[in-house]
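Re: Re: ligand-bound prediction request (bumping)

Still looking for help on this. To restate: I need the protein modeled with iron/sulfur cluster bound, output as structure tokens. Inputs repeated here so nobody has to scroll up.
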Amino acid sequence: MQKHLNRSFPELQAGMKQCRLCLKEGFEIYPPAVFSGLESAEMMTIGQAPGITEQEAERPFNAGSGTRLFGWLGRAGIEEEWFRSTQYMSSVTKCYPGRHPSGSGDRVPSRREQELCRPYLSKEIEFVNPQVIIPIGRLAINLFFPKKLKLQDIIGTQKEVEGRWIIPLPHSSGASRWHQIEENRQLITDAIKLINNHRVRIFPA
Ligand code: SF4
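Reply:
Sorry for the wait, this slipped through. Here it is.
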């Protein structure tokens, strides 16, 4: 029972750091939970799960995927230091899931792990109440868009869900080939323009 869910934001965060639910169900997972930012944030990113460098630094999008992500967001006038210190960054599952058994890349969190971690994400969204959510990668995008849609049909679009704007981006890791394909780069540019429009609206100079 995640008792801390209905308490304050700091208690929720402390509860996430202490959480071992997936370990108790026998999943290979490496706590503590990784997330960052402020309850007052107006923009929130949701990734898939932290990688090993994120887990070691306890900082979301800490390595190459972060460099690429903030390269994209930089084109929307968003500086990394500002975003990290004033906005909010989380993920579908918050603990490093370890390597894939095949040895190639990190393990994708199972449906059960996603279920176990989902109440935390719901409460983070509820507490932070951001105007814009940027789901990054398929697992996070699936929270807001039908699974049957291809990334090509989703990236570069936005939709309003419960009063928030959802603007998806592809996974920014070097292992992802999607963002490396020429015709997909324009879709990312379209998404960045949408994010920039909201940044200007929410944070006028
Ligand atoms: S991934 Fe989420 S539910 Fe699983 S142990 Fe970490 S914080 Fe808990």
